[in-house]
Recover the amino acids of this structure.
């Protein structure tokens, strides 16, 4: 692959809602205070598990997109609330047709499909008015979000499982490079459902308690739900999106390549795209799911991509929110950006990592570290061997 | 936006094993299952029809390569995802103890075909999988041109979808469909040139009736390739008469 030309775009605003809180300030306050948000799995789950749930009532769908209602979309509306004002400004500044939407989701509105299927099994028909195209496809996410936000530029859903909302940064950079947009609302949203809880259970990937990423006794993941959105613009103030590296493991559908080759390649490609040397990376928000194979593989990959002399701190935030699947990439990018913040910058504690697996040769952060950094990576890996690493730099 | 060039075309639909058959307007009633020769035994046995037809057209579009690049990027555009696998999992929740098959679960993600293709070819090149509604045909071309602009080389765009299985039926009859285009910025030996990919107001006087999968909106472009007929082609059926739509110009001056 030829090296991309170095370029950078500011992240001018962001917002989030997940198990840590219903608004961005609450989410970040709990991240700063190292307080996890995990609670027991929803009713109907036939085994015990901890999950990251968005607590409390969710917003009603806007009138114009009432027929596209789902829990997933309601989480999206909640997560959008804090970014609506800057987004309106961006639409005013650039024009609605020059603002795009790239949203990641893995399960979308599978919850509503599950409920409809259950009713079909019990009564022989799906609920009156249930339309799969309106309730349980990713079109049922993209179309209402465009209508709700007033975005009229290119719009797409990226669905590469757990890397979906990290991939959206690659789309945003390409669209800006191609000059088809001047701003892109990127983000991710996923909601809890039995499909993912039981699916990861079937893969023996669920933790018996809280996930303990990089911990010596780690035993699996927690599933979470939530949404995050970030505004990437052609110009403006804020931390810089410097490069995105993408690769495939080409190994197995759900087991990571134990050599970490694909993950390393994603980080190397992000460095190359950004024109940044490995030793300039000061922090990595790891994919860090808490499964034994992922964390062992990722430790090898980070060490080999950044070099034996790297002093980058490494954190997994999965034990705070649960693994939010299609919403994880955007949310963790937002967490990584806290180290670049001009106001009270910090790297959060990597919950559950103490004691660290002796096989893992990384500087895992046990207690919050305050202070501004200059370059950070956020990793996301997924089923299908889909790897993404996103590189951000401090504001100019 | 830069022009890109079509270097290979793949197509599969029940009764239509490949693009030349479609080009000739022939129907082969025996063709109900794509060959998907790229997939070795165990991979092929576990793959859904959606995955197999996506891999089949991917390989068709790639096989006409004059010289296969070391790495070929890809964009997979799948509106309904691995919906048959997902519905099989929904049924499992109501059977016995409600346990799911781990293999079916990891094969239920939208990027299953992309994962299988990379495993089969050992190709670690950047790849993305997108979804959405009627805009999916143009949105996939935009991602592909973006990949070429970022990395150079070649990319294969695959559009693949099936009608929804019971009990989530579409309001119309449709057949599964998979189409692939191999694209690059290199005009040498190209089949056609694509230029001016853009989105603006729908110019059709009448709303077309939605009678096929969203991705079937790629077929008018293939018709132009068959006829070698330059045109500006609409890449989606709009939701309302005022909705903007993706369009691209196709030219044969290559």
């Amino acid at each position: 692959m030829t090296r991309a030309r170095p370029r950078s775009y500011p992240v001018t605003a962001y917002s989030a809602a997940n198990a840590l809180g219903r608004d961005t300030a609450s989410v970040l306050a709990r991240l700063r205070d190292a307080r996890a948000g995990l609670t027991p799995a929803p009713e109907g789950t036939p085994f015990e598990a901890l999950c990251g749930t968005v607590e409390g009532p969710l917003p009603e769908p806007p009138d114009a997109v009432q027929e596209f209602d789902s829990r997933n979309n309601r989480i999206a509306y909640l997560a959008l609330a804090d970014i609506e004002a800057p987004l309106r400004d961006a639409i005013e500044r650039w024009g609605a047709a020059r603002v795009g939407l790239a949203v990641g989701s893995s399960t979308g509105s599978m919850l509503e499909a599950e409920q409809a299927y259950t009713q079909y099994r019990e009564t022989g028909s799906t609920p009156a008015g249930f339309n799969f195209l309106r309730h349980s496809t990713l079109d049922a996410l993209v179309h209402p979000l465009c209508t709700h936000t007033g975005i009229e530029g290119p719009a797409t859903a990226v669905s590469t499982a757990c890397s979906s909302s990290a991939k959206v940064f690659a789309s945003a950079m390409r669209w800006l490079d191609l000059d088809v947009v001047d701003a892109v609302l990127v983000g991710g949203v996923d909601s809890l459902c039995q499909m993912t809880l039981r699916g990861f259970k079937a893969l023996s990937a669920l933790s018996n308690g809280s996930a303990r990423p990089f911990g010596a006794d780690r035993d699996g993941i927690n599933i979470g739900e939530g949404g995050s959105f970030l505004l990437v613009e052609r110009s403006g103030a804020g931390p810089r999106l410097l490069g995105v590296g993408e690769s495939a493991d080409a190994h197995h559908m759900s087991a990571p390549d134990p050599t970490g080759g694909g993950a390393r390649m994603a980080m190397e490609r992000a460095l190359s795209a950004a024109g940044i040397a490995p030793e300039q990376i000061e922090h990595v928000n790891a994919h860090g799911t808490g499964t034994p194979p992922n964390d062992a593989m990722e430790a090898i990959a980070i060490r080999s991509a950044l070099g034996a002399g790297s002093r980058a701190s490494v954190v997994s935030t999965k034990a705070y929110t649960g693994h939010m699947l299609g919403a994880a990439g955007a949310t963790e990018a937002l967490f990584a950006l806290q180290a670049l913040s001009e106001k009270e910058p910090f790297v959060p504690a990597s919950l559950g990592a103490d004691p660290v697996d002796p096989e893992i040769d990384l500087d895992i952060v046990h207690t919050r570290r305050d202070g501004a950094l200059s370059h950070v990576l956020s990793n996301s890996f997924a089923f299908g061997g889909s790897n993404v690493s996103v590189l951000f730099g401090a504001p100019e | 936006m830069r022009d890109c060039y079509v270097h290979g075309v793949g197509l599969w639909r029940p009764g239509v094993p490949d693009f030349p058959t479609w080009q000739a307007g022939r129907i082969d009633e025996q063709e109900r299952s794509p060959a998907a020769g790229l997939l070795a035994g165990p991979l092929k046995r576990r793959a859904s029809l959606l995955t197999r037809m996506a891999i089949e057209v991917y390989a068709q579009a790639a096989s006409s390569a004059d010289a296969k690049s070391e790495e070929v990027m890809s964009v997979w555009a799948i509106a309904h995802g691995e919906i048959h696998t997902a519905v099989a999992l929904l049924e499992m929740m109501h059977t016995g103890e409600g346990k799911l098959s781990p293999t079916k679960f990891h094969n239920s993600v939208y990027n299953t075909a992309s994962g299988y293709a990379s495993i089969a070819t050992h190709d670690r090149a950047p790849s993305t999988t997108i979804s959405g509604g009627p805009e999916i045909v143009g949105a996939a071309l935009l991602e592909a041109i973006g990949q070429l602009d970022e990395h150079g080389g070649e990319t294969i765009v695959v559009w693949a979808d099936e009608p929804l299985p019971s009990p989530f039926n579409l309001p119309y009859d449709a057949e599964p469909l998979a189409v692939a285009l191999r694209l690059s910025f290199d005009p040498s030996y190209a089949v056609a040139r694509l230029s001016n990919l853009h989105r603006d107001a729908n110019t059709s006087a009448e709303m077309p009736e939605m009678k096929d999968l969203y991705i079937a909106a790629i077929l008018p472009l293939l018709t132009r390739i068959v006829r070698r007929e330059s045109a500006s082609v609409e890449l989606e059926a709009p939701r309302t008469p005022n909705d903007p739509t993706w369009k691209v110009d196709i030219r044969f001056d290559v």
About this structure: The CA atoms of residues 45 and 190 of chain B lie 35 Å apart. Chain B touches chain A through 69 residues (CB under 8 Å). The mean pLDDT of chain B is 92.
